[in-house]
Each structure stands twice: as structure tokens, then as C-alpha cells.
Amino acid sequence: MSTLAPVTPLSAPDALASSDLGLPTEVPLDERDGRYLRAAIALADRGRSRGNRPFGAVLVSPEDEVLGEAWCNTSETGDCTGHAETGLVREVSPRYSREQLAQATLYSSGEPCVMCAGAIFWSNVRRVVYGIDAQRLRAFRGERLDQRDAELSCRDVFAASPYPIECIGPALVEEASQSHRGAWKL
Ligand SMILES: [Zn+2]
Predict the structure, then answer these.
(1) Separation of 173 CA from ligand 1 center, angstroms?
(2) 113 CA → ligand 1 middle, Å
(3) Is 151 considered catalytic here?
(4) By its UniProt entry, which SUPFAM superfamilies does this protein fall under (predicted)?
(5) In this predicted model, which residue has the larger pLDDT, 148 or 4?
(6) Which helix (H) or strand (E) holds 35?
């Protein structure tokens, strides 16, 4: 028997209104961060079109060079660790120095889970911008146990780091939510 507490049953549209539900407040982004977060959201849609859960991530240098991009490929590969951010770290960490990665920003269409937050920590990436937050995502996931995430915020993982990891989000919530509409029914 599961010891997990029941999930508060929010409907997806309700989850988008943060006012009286105690949901995280959306953070405004500048043009540059908005542009790359939208690129991550586009990757989420691309991954979804291939039958995966809709998550995407992109890593960008301070000189606006895209160092890597990935979408969640768990359905395509059968690899439960195939989340977008972890896949992205796996792709870029052999190719760039830890010093280069420390200067980069990782954009993720959704708030990183505990595994991805750990991978981001090990990569030495120190700035993260994400779209839809984990709480709103739970409204899309529904109450199915096999779709439940670990309810530990990426910020708790980053806070355990010996150096600061800046974490910005939720942002572009409405745009980031679009990728998830109808994607968790099966
Ligand atoms: Zn993850």
C-alpha cells in the first residue's frame, strides 16, 4: 500500500489561476530569457509529437550560443531517466568544461524534478529558468500514482549546493501549460 498522501484534486484550468490557491506566483522575464524559455517549450511540443511527456530544455551560453537541447524521451527509449534536463546534461557535460557550464543558463519548459535538479548540480550549471511549476503540473498529471512526481522542490536540492544556483520561475505559465493540455490522459 502506498504511503503517499492524496493529491489535492485541482482541475487544470483552476490550477492556472494562482490567486487563491497558494500556487507559486509567475515571474516576469526579460526578452532574452523569454526567447530561450519559449525555445524549451517548443522542444517540449516536439517531444510530445513523438509520443513522450511534454518537457524540453535548452542550454545557452552568455554569448547566446545554444550549447545543447533536449526533450523528454522516456517513451521513445524506455529509459525512465530520459527527462529533458537530465538528457541535456548528459549531452553537454562531456563537450564543455565545468567552467563553461558554470556560465550557462538552462531553460526548462517545466520545473526540474529532483533527479534533474541533481544532474544540474553535478553539471555545474548555475542558472535555471523554468516554465510551469511542479504544483501546477500535478493538476495535469492527475492522481495516477504512476504519474506522480517526488514532491521535493528543485530549490531544496539547489539550496543544498555549496555554491549558489539561481532558480527563476515559474514563468510564461500559460504558454508552458499549453504543452500539457491533453497530454497526461493516457
Ligand atoms: Zn526530471
Answers:
(1) 18
(2) 4
(3) no
(4) Cytidine deaminase-like (SSF53927)
(5) 148
(6) helix 31-49
